Amino acid sequence: MKWRFLCQFLKKNAISLADLPACPVETTLTLISDKWKVLILRDLMPGTKRFGELKKSIGHVSQKVLTSQLRQMEQSGLVSRKVYAEVPPRVEYTLTDLGYSLQPIMDAMWSWGKIIRKNSPPKNPKPPDIRLFLQKKCLKTSLLF
């Protein structure tokens, strides 16, 4: 079923299988190999969003970079863009079937990230108090300060 989406995309965009990397992992990375693209995918999985909503939910991405990433994702067939003829202009972004087919990859990344966060040490562990260590050592050897 997922292959159907990819084949339709390749035919529609005149890309041959020969143009894609031989390695399936590299093919996937070719389509989503940017930090912002993965976050865009994450934020569009629940449904359609406007540009401003995406910018706000992603955080520290510039308007220029977000626009560029969305255009690349639109060209690769992961995202569809709908422009409304209104003043001010309204643009909405939605994942295509090909974009939604990345859900298992996003779920796996989510699960892996939760495991890593749970098992990693705190960012700023409190350093041991060297004075307590020396006091205990000195008491054991009967040497006092």
SSE diagram, text form:
Layout (H helix, E strand, L loop, with lengths): L1 H11 L11 H9 L2 H10 L4 E2 H8 L4 H13 L3 E6 L5 E6 L1 H4 L2 H17 L10 H11 L5
Antiparallel strand pairs: 1-3, 2-3
Over all CA atoms, what is the radius of gyration?
25 Å
Largest sheet: 3 strands, antiparallel
pLDDT < 50 stretches: none
Total number of beta strands: 3
Residue-averaged pLDDT = 81
Summarize the structure.
With 145 residues, this protein is mainly alpha-helical.
Task: Describe the 3D structure.
This protein is mainly alpha-helical. Helices cover 57% and strands 10% of the residues. It contains 8 helices and 3 strands, in the order αααβααββααα. It has helices at residues 2-12, 24-32, 35-44, 51-58, 63-75, 97-100, 103-119, 130-140, and strands spanning 49-50, 79-84, 90-95. The protein has a 3-stranded antiparallel beta sheet with strand order 1-3-2. Strand 2 (79-84) and strand 3 form a beta hairpin. The longest helix has 17 residues, at 103-119. It is extended and about 75 Å long.
